[in-house]
Amino acid sequence: MTHKPEKRIVEGAERAILYIHGIVGTPNHFAEFIKLVPGDVSVYNMLLDGHGKTAADFGKTTMKKWEAQVEAAVAELLAQHNELFIVAHSMGTLFAIEQAVNNDRISGLFLMAVPIKLFIKPRMLSNAMKVYFDRIRPDDTIALAAKACYGIHPDKNPVKYFGWLPRYLELFSKIRKTRKILPALKTKCVAYQSVCDEMVSKKSISYLNKNSCMDVIELKNSTHYYYEKADFAFLLSEFKKFMQ
Q1: What is the pLDDT of residue 65?
Q2: What pLDDT score does 220 carry?
Q3: What's the pLDDT at 229?
Q4: Which residues contact 164 (CB under 8 A, 6 or more apart)?
Q5: Are 6 and 28 in contact (CB under 8 A)?
Q6: What is the pLDDT of residue 125?
Q7: Does the residue 1 lie in any domain?
Q8: CA pair distance 192, 118, nearest whole angstrom
Q9: Which pLDDT belongs to residue 155?
Q10: What is the pTM of this model?
Q11: What pLDDT does 129 receive?
């Protein structure tokens, strides 16, 4: 599977949407959402550094590079458009919140699986092993969804993954920093939290609900990567409303 950024800048467009995927994620995560964007709206579905490449490449990137990428993308889009909306998943939501806190020109956030607090369940580790060894039953929808959202080319050499530890330590630090700045968020946003998420703790919902600008909606039958059919249809209908 290929993982590539997508940029569609519409000349004279008033609005733009920036999409930001999660750690070891892929721009492909937003494919169905982009299909719903009107033709007069600019789109930038970014690929974070180190993603779409090998396990070794991912270990060589840094959180600072990702932050700089997002900041540059926001500046570029705001220089050409009057309104900028951000759609993000997982780690990408942390960048979206940070940008909105620091820039009052961002018009709105559409967030999925905001990891304000983590709680790693055994199913997450199980799915990771299934993806690593590429042993997934055709009816294992949750593991298949995790594989589809995995933006690193597989490598069976475990040594190549040692460099990943600093990236996850940086992620944990980013989560702590986001918890601190969350009360300063004044941009209107909506967060969709999966009740069955195997990584994001339900306590995240409590943190998000403390901010009056945040509208939090629970998806009862979905996980971090897998969206149950009815939940996903609802999510897409909510995105249509967001676009309006």
Answers
A1: 98
A2: 96
A3: 96
A4: 55, 58, 59
A5: no
A6: 86
A7: no
A8: 16
A9: 86
A10: 0.96
A11: 87
The string of DSSP letters for the chain reads -----EEEPPTT-SEEEEEE--TT--GGGGHHHHTTS-TTSEEEE---TTTTSBHHHHHH--HHHHHHHHHHHHHHHHHH-SEEEEEEETHHHHHHHHHHHH-TTEEEEEEES--SSB---HHHHHHHHHHHHT---TT-HHHHHHHHT--SB----GGGGTTHHHHHHHHHHHHHHHHHHGGG--S-EEEEEETT-SSB-THHHHHHHTSTTEEEEEETT--SS---HHHHHHHHHHHHHHH-
Domain harbouring 113, CATH code: 3.40.50.1820
Backbone angles phi, psi at 113, to 5 degrees: 60, 60
- According to the model, what pLDDT value does residue 131 have? 87
pLDDT of residue 156: 85
**b vs e for 103-135, b when ≥16 Cβ sit within 10 Å of the residue's Cβ?**
eeebbbbbbbbbbbeeeebebbeebeebbbeee
Confidence (pLDDT) at 56: 94
Domain count across the chain: 1
Q: How far apart are CA 216 and CA 219, in angstroms?
A: 10
CA 106 from chain centre, in angstroms, equals: 17
The residue range of the domain holding 12 is: 6-243
- Residues of the chain under the 70 pLDDT cut: none
Give the list of residues 6+ apart from residue 106 with CB closer than 8 angstroms, or none: 74, 78, 84, 85, 86, 99, 100, 187
